[in-house]
Design a protein that fits this description.
about 500 residues, 8-stranded mixed sheet, about 30% helix, globular
């Protein structure tokens, strides 16, 4: 996509789409607006409620209003491109959104397929809580609209299947140049590949996430980057002590009672008789929305699911022209759900495990809900990039991550687990990671063909565990039965 300005290139990207592309863009923003129920009916009510609790459209509008001029131009180019596409293609009928607004991209949640983080609280728990099946809440009259459903459907939150990323330094390549291998595991139509060029210095190729006007992972003339989904802990569930006085709700904090904030959320949903509305009177503490009641304990959520800085970081890195410039975009700390594998024309390779990393007291187990009544469990600011799990230009000359632990990312030259708090990298190892470490250490003069061959290596470390177990089970259980049958037949 070529443009005289960056905004022109964005306009071209969004205009040069087909009907199927538009449908994906529209559905993406119907979901991010929390309006799926207007299309799919009552079954999506609690998916919409979750989105409305963790993404505030009013905040996105405010961020657009106060955005710097360069960012507004990009966002305006985005909306103009889609709206012009609709104008030129009247045969394309939007499902719901007749006109796209420039603040829609600021609803973005980092681009991964499953980028909403809820601290382990499921949609089914949210539904159980806000459908009125929790007696204390139902009796307080906090739910209005239709009577509670008789059965609680199980909503399964989609989990990304992962990606593989390799980087090779000049010391182990035949050409003396760094090589980056990008292998995202996404659905076939999720990330088309495009080339964006402008006279303002943009020249970047790679994969876009429909609904966003930038290359999400790829390369420009100087730098290349790709992402793998991370398990770095970026959101926390807090155990709240709620009490009721004079028909008002309060929560305990540092020995005092603070008023619970109540917000009415009205969600429209499609029925055979037309559009109807369900009103939820939702609860918030200073940590965030109250999302569930588990084992008699109320759970609120602290999170960072929507951040305009994340959009800015994603755009600015597409124009990074050096290792120093790319690291400067990483210093924004606004990429909440991904790790980054990197290589550049200067010969550097690098890996960062996560990016948005709240700082916490390490004596608590942050993999579980923590006590919300004390200040000791509050976030203590944010970790700098230097405090995160990362590695630059390791001695072995290669880096890998396959949605696995960062403590094998460079073989024996990897970061040490004991140097970091557990919540910074709770990821375990997987067989893809085991394969990568073994395969990448076997070659010392990589070229593109050898990199591709390594990526498609057919040895499966999983079978080294599974096949012997299968054979052992056969000899212990199946074979004696077959022998017995042959003797008695």
């Amino acid at each position: 996509m070529y443009g005289k300005t960056d905004a022109d290139a964005v306009f071209g990207l969004l205009y040069a789409q087909c009907e199927d592309d538009f449908k994906r863009v529209e559905l993406n923003y119907i979901e991010k607006l929390g309006r799926l129920s207007e299309v799919n009916g009552e079954k999506d009510l609690y998916n919409d409620l979750l989105i409305r609790l963790v993404i505030d459209t009013a905040d996105a509008i405010k961020d657009y209003t106060k955005a710097p001029a360069w960012l507004k131009k990009i966002l305006n180019g985005y909306a103009d491109g889609i709206n012009y596409f609709l104008y030129k293609n009247p045969q394309v009928k939007p499902v719901l959104l007749k006109r796209f607004q420039p603040w829609y991209p600021l609803l973005w949640t980092d681009g991964s397929i499953g980028a909403i983080s809820t601290g382990g609280i499921s949609v089914s728990e949210l539904k159980s809580f806000y459908s009125g099946t929790d007696e204390a809440i139902a009796n307080a009259g906090l739910i209005k609209g239709e009577s509670p459903l008789n059965e609680i459907a199980e909503f399964l939150e989609e989990k990304p299947t992962g990606s593989n990323g390799f980087a090779f330094s000049p010391k182990i390549t035949a050409s003396g140049n760094a090589i980056l291998y990008i292998n995202p595991h996404v659905t076939f139509y999720f990330r088309p590949e495009v080339h964006m060029v402008s006279e303002e210095g943009m020249n970047v190729y790679g994969a876009v996430t429909w609904g966003q006007p930038f290359i999400y992972q790829g390369f420009n003339e100087h730098c290349g980057w790709m992402h793998t989904s991370s398990e770095a802990d970026i959101s926390d569930a807090y155990i709240e002590k709620l009490t009721q006085k004079n028909n008002r709700w309060f929560y305990e904090y540092e020995g005092t009672l603070k008023p619970v904030t109540q917000k009415s959320i009205s969600i429209n949903y499609k029925t055979d008789a037309g559009m109807q509305a369900k009103i939820f009177k939702t609860l918030f503490t200073h940590h965030g929305p109250v999302m569930a009641k588990r084992n008699g304990q109320y759970l609120s959520l602290r999170h960072n699911n929507r951040d305009t800085k994340g959009f800015m970081q994603s755009w600015l890195r597409t124009k990074a022209n050096s290792f120093a410039a790319f690291k400067k975009t990483m210093d924004m700390g606004a990429n909440p759900s991904n790790n980054t594998v990197y290589a550049d024309g200067e010969g550097n390779i690098a890996y960062w495990h996560g990016n948005f990393l709240p700082k916490r007291d390490p004596k608590y187990d942050w993999s579980k809900p923590v006590d919300g009544t004390i200040s000791a469990t509050e976030w203590k600011g944010y970790h700098t990039v230097n405090e995160s799990v990362h590695v630059y230009n390791p001695e072995n000359g290669w880096l890998q991550n396959c949605n696995s632990t960062p403590f094998t990312v460079a073989g024996k030259y990897s970061p040490k687990r004991t140097d970091y708090a557990n919540y910074l990298a709770p990821d375990g190892e997987n067989f893809r990671g085991i394969n990568a470490v073994r395969v990448l250490d076997e070659e010392k003069k990589y070229n593109i063909d050898k990199v591709i061959k390594a990526g498609y290596d057919t040895r499966l470390a999983a079978f080294e565990v599974l096949v012997p177990g299968l054979i052992n089970a056969f000899h212990k259980k199946i074979l004696p039965i077959t022998r017995k049958m042959s003797l008695t037949s």
